[in-house]
Structures are given as structure tokens and as C-alpha cells.
Amino acid sequence: MKNSLATIVGFIAASLTVYIFEALIGHQLFPFPEGANPMDMEWIKNNMNRIPTGAKVMVVIGHFMGIMAGMFIAGLISKTSLVPAYIVGGLMLAATVFNIIMLPKALWFSSSDIVLAVAGLWIGKSLAQRQLKI
């Protein structure tokens, strides 16, 4: 039961972290052009070149930080297993890859997003592992 809770809360924490970096910080520091609808996937697909570079960087940072935060929280709650952290990290990595595949992006964006997501997994595992009480 505790591991299920760790997985759920870890995933929520990861998603919330991505949202904070991407939407709250990124969209405030780097506003979208007039008339943009960041919730409309079609608009984003057709106007990727109009989205500020800083906003794209915040997405990459959000994915990196979200994976680490979610895995850390999952480890903090579980205290006995890395499985919840691995599940959270795997789901977030899958979401990152899905994002890369679904939206046309510049090579720098896609490559940095995947490299930092994998780095987030590695660091997140280390952070979660430190929480284990075995």
C-alpha cells in the first residue's frame, strides 16, 4: 500500500514540477505571442517557430526537474523500495519521449530534452536511493 501511495504521490509531484517550470515560470518569463493558445496542440504544432526559445528551455528544465522531484518523493515515501521511483521515472521519461515525437522541434530541443531526461533519471535514482531505510 505504501509503495502504491509513493508511486501516485511521486507522479503527482513530478507532473506538478513540470507544470510549475513550463507553465507558471516559463510562460511568465517568456510569454507566447499574441493570440497563442498553449493548450491547443494543433496551434503548437503549426507555430513552434513562434514560441520563444526561453519557453522551450523551460520545458526541458521542467522535464529534468520533474523526473528528479518525482523519483525523490517516491523514494521518500516508500523508504523500502526503488520500484515506485522507477515507475515514476519511467512514466515521466515516456511522457518526455511522447512530447518529442508528437511535436516538431529543433534538434537542439529534442536532443537536450532526452539527454536531460536521462540525466534526471540517473540523479533521481540516486536521490531516491538515499531515502531507503533497509
From TrEMBL:
Residue ranges crossing the lipid bilayer per the database entry: 7-30, 57-76, 83-101, 107-124
Protein keywords: Membrane, Transmembrane, Transmembrane helix
Protein name: DUF1761 domain-containing protein
Organism encoding this protein: Psychroserpens burtonensis
